Amino acid sequence: MMATAVADTPIQVPLAPSAVDRAISRDKHEGLRLAIRARLVVIAALAPLMVYLSGAYESLYYLALLVLFGAIGWAQLSMGRVGRSRTELLLLVLDVLFVTAALVIPNPLRSDVWPEPMQFRYGGAIYFTLILATAVLAYSWRTLIFLAGTIILTWSAALVWTAMQPIDEPELRQRVFDALAGSPHLAHYLDPYSLNIPNRVQELVVIALVAATLATAGWRSQRLLHRQAAAERERFNLSRYFSPNVVELIANNDQPLATVRAQKVAVLFVDIVGFTAYADEHEPAIVISTLRSFLERMEREVFRHEGTLDKYLGDGLMATFGTPVPGPNDAVHALRCGCAMLAAIAAWNEERAARGEPALAIGVGIHYGPVVTGDIGANRLELAVIGATVNIASRLEAHTRVLNVSLIASRDLIEQARSEPDWTEDDTQGLEPADPQVIRGVAEPVHTWTLSG
């Protein structure tokens, strides 16, 4: 009869973002924070400058504009996200429109009113480069190009609008030409109603060149970000198979696994006792969920004890201690890992009992001896561990059913563990020497130690 109780019910969760997505998201938000800080620095620098250039009263207008400029920056920070966002683009356009209006529309607090073209005499277009410079901290090169295009179009529109304004005081222009009658070029340059188009074109060209340079830098930074994300993804994938110290070794060396070597390692096998019968009696979703929970716990202990996850084997796994590089305490770590696996299963069974689910038992086999290690495969490489040691460890795990124990460790492993620096007498607590065991596929009986569950 099929069981209906749900064991470790799987929870539907969205797919985790890729390493590239995580890196881009992290970089975007860091960039936005830097951009708002840069904007605040700009505001702090410009505020006293405005007071100095315009006087205390007239500068109130510019100080109010700076506050609004800062508020737009905060809005960009709060609404920023990875990917296309119309809101962010609208805020960037608002930035450009705001700065353009501040540069083109005369200060209403001025005591004297100047012709609108005079507003262009201050070279205010350089402030657009500040917008571009802060934008490169947070936005992609494509967004920078969009922003530069918006600036050029808006500034050009402002020029056209200003050129279309009527001349309010033609006598003012005439007085300038009369005073400089002998210098027509200078008179034209100082004409209060002249937009000095060559200078305005020069400003637009400079803005375009600055934008192109910053966009190139942004494109290059994005490429570096993707490379960094790829390296992060590779390191994350390595961490699923190797302990953190081994990951560092692999990440910091070009070909640490390529050399074929003969060495001594500890090999551990573990699987669930009677899992085939359990699978036949439960729904597939329950079986898979239980298996995932089991392997997660076993994998955690392997890595916690500086082991390497060699492979999953259906309802079990194989782990090695001392690959790819031997350590001073490989046998100790393997023995402690096996005992920790039993403790983890005991704690898990308490949780299962509280849910009314049956207890599970495991078998652990550990052996220490010589193996051959090296890369195998062509395009997809795998670290292979080959030799009689692997077979003996696997047979010891299967022999736990014969002796009705939870763990069997070979005498070779115990003797090696006792010779290692981290060994303590507690490491064999509960372990008992057993009679030599005849193991299938092994010519000589194997001396073992056992631990009951």
What does this structure look like?
It is a single chain. The chain has helices at residues 19-54, 59-79, 86-104, 126-135, 141-163, 170-179, 184-190, 197-239, 244-251, 275-281, 284-304, 330-354, 388-403, 411-418; strands at residues 261-272, 308-312, 316-321, 362-376, 382-386, 407-410, 432-437, 446-451. By secondary structure, it is of the alpha+beta class. Strands 1, 2, 3, 4, 5, 6, 7 and 8 form an eight-stranded mixed beta sheet that branches. Mean pLDDT is 82; it is low at 1-16.
What percentage of the residues does DSSP assign to strands (E)? 5-15%
Give, in order, the helices and strands. Answer: HHHHHHHHHEHHEEHEEHEHEE
**Approximately how much helix is present in the residues?**
55-70%
Distance between the termini: 29 Å
Number of helices: 14
Which class of secondary structure composition applies to the elements? alpha+beta
> Looking at the structure, what is the overall shape?
rod-shaped
Summarize the structure in short:
The chain is built from 14 helices and eight strands. With 453 residues, it is of the alpha+beta class.
